[in-house]
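Here is one chain, start to finish.
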Amino acid sequence: MLTGLIVPSEGTAIISNYDISKDMDRVRQIIGVCPQFDILWDELTAEEHLYMFAKLKYIEKERIEDEINMRLREVNLSDVKKFPAKSFSGGMKRRLSMAIACVGNPRVIFLDEPTTGMDPKNRRDIWVLIQKMKKGRSVILTTHAMDEADILSDRIAVMSSGHLICVGTSLYLKNHYGDGYRLSFIVERPEVSRVIDKLLSLMPSGKVLDSSGGSLIFGISTSKMEELEAFLTFIEEEDENLSVQDGEIRKKIKDWGLSHTTLEEVFMKIMKDQKQK
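Its structure:
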């Protein structure tokens, strides 16, 4: 509806002071759209695609060549400027779609799952490109990849069954909906129960979230920082300051790490709460 593909059944929206129910022609000139699936023509080259969309955006004829070269340079496709789209890999086609969305320097860009089906290398390249695109404009991105939302978004909105459930920064959502911090451990398998007992003595409000094969995940609330401090003191203390028993237990911990609740865990919790409601 915001991009003009579907007419709203009721209500309206304002994009840069233009009403989508009255000024859709003006709205189309100030937005860029990268759909979920590439809409490209096999016979057209990268240059020809961008030329066509530059004309649709009413870019002056004398500026079109510079615009094409700049957009291809941004997505690292300058070397294949004259190549037809049918010769491109999936990642190259996606980058060309991103370049098309940027033609005319739009104020608002809509990206619909821009990294769907990409290999990790191309995915990272697109992330870098999106970070650059954010400067001086609004980018609205939809994704099911929580790590993507976490890395790219200044604000995150979670939707369920067509309703907006929550909006906020990644840190706000983690603090508001998350269970706090995660402590992960690699422990000698026969000693797992002893290590858990020690952790619970240091952090009574904590809980074991997972324990399997010597791998242990322990959760603690952000409001219990004094307990976390007690654990950190234990784990970083000089050997001579520990009791013999504590020294033995610490040696059984081969590796450990501290992290915040992941955005994926937050999303799953929100969806679970919605389902229960």
